[in-house]
Amino acid sequence: MSSRGSLQRKCVKGHPKAYDKCSSRCIRWYPRLELPRGPDGRRRFEALGGYPTRTQAEAALALARHAHGLTLDPAKLTVNQYLDRWLAHIRASLRARTVARYAALLRDHVRPDIGARPLKQLSPLDVQAVYDRLAVGGRRDGKPGGLAPQHILAVHRCLHRALAQAVTWRLVAHNAATHATPPPLPARTVVALVPEQVALLLHAADHSPSPWLGPWTVLAAAAGARNGELCALEWADLDLDAGTVRFRQALTIIDPAVLPNTATAGDDGRRKELAVGPLKSAASNAILTLPPFAVQALRRHRHRQLRLRLALGQPATVGLRWVEPGRPPRPLQLDLVFRTERGTPVNPNHASRAFARLSAPAAACAGVGDGSRKGAGQHHRRPAAPCRRWRARPARLHSPAPPDRAPAGRADRGHLRPSSAGWTGGVGSASGKGIRNSNPA
Fold it and tell me: In the β-sheet with 327-334, what is the strand arrangement from edge to edge?
């Protein structure tokens, strides 16, 4: 049984097309699903409502096809039609941010070239042509040059995963992306912060005018947590008397269009929103022991946050939605450790940019972070002479912990640790690999 659908673009304010006055605020997309003919032979249609973006309308159309049990003829199935079905399938198993990332990669880099091609006729040469074009002139901003090899590799991994599912469903015999080769990644040299830079970083954190950036940086250096884990931390997860912290959730930026209740999400026109979800890995859910200087900084931060909240009349909790793969979102009230001056959650992207500005003096120390490998090499050849405030802290960071607790700054979470070549590790970042000074080789 086959089924077709259509999308109609309308202006809710009635602007004539000739005037070209429409914007994203007045445009709505209306999908319509064509059902099998009735007993009388007449064509039947089902209207699916209006959506602020075309992506949401296409996703609603794909879900409606699946709900009615309507399938497409494998012989006539195009790459675009298959990708719509695959994206609807992975919503139940992958995080919302991952689904949105896959949808964006396919929309921007894959669909324009091979989306109209029949899936069964897709060959490795077609996929290789996509990678070659992206390497030469795949930028969306119109500037000359191609995409970075890391970005093309992300496109390759996404397309390979999608076509692997097509092989599992027996829609194609072979994965066309298996024999296509993305450009190789350039070698990179990772340079970690040394004690002098860490001292500059914590000094800048102590004098930061932001109500959250200073303690956020201290906790990141002590625990080595990911960016989203820090932004989603609640006061109930901290035991300052015992000096421990436990990360149970992560704050992330999601597109409401990829949530299970797509029909109601994003009706107000918002493209992105902050949401709370599970941790990226099970290893992140551990009790970490904090050093004394981090506990003191968090105690001071708690008192300052309470005074600011009472002075401005801000609520004690912040309302967000819990988003988990395969389940509808549900509202939550969170008592967050880190909040902005307005009492709102800290956006992880904003936290990354704020930390980059704060750490610029530390990165510039001894020429690290300016793209000069020579300066970084000379910096590591000098004997390390930690300042007085950090001379006794390495032992605190690595003090013995109880058997049921993991020491703060574990080796697999990018903490700062002394070694024969200086200090290795880094402060937790949004990618979970640590904030380090990296220069292309």
Answer: 250-254, 273-277, 318-324, 327-334
Integer Cα distance of 422 and 412 in angstroms: 18
The residue range of the domain holding 181 is 72-186
Closest by CA to 328, choosing from 260, 253, 257, is: 260
Q: Where are the alpha helices (DSSP H) in 257-313?
A: 292-312
Single out the residue in 186, 219, 249 at which a domain terminates: 186
Overall domain count for the chain: 3
For tokens 């209306």, name the residue: 30
* CA-based nearest residue to 122, from 72, 161, 173, 182: 173
Other beta carbons within 10 Å of 255: 22
How many whole angstroms separate alpha carbon 210 and alpha carbon 218? 13
Query: Residue 33 burial (CB < 10 Å; 0-12/13-18/19+)?
Result: buried
Q: Which residue has the tokens 């700062």?
A: 416
State phi, psi for 275 to the nearest 5 degrees.
-145, 160
Q: What pLDDT is attached to residue 71? A: 60
Positions in the chain short of pLDDT 50: 1-3, 262-269, 366-441
Residues 150 and 94 in one domain: yes
pLDDT value of residue 155: 96
Q: What length is written for the chain?
A: 441
3-class SS at 427? strand
pTM, entire model: 0.64
Phi, psi of 320 (to 5 degrees): -135, 175
Tokens of 427: 């402060």
Task: Give the residue carrying structure tokens 């001894």.
Answer: 366
Does residue 407 share a domain with residue 379? yes
Residues 86 and 110 reside in one and the same domain? yes
Cα-Cα-Cα-Cα dihedral of 291, 295, 296, 298, to 10°? 140
Q: Is 198 part of a structural domain of the chain?
A: yes
Give the C-alpha separation, 72 to 85, whole Å. 10
**pLDDT given for residue 362 in this prediction:** 65
Give the model's pLDDT for residue 402.
41
Residue 60 lies in a domain: no
Does residue 237 come out as left (phi exceeding 0), alpha (psi in the -120 to 50 range) or beta?
Answer: alpha
d(CA 406, CA 284): 11
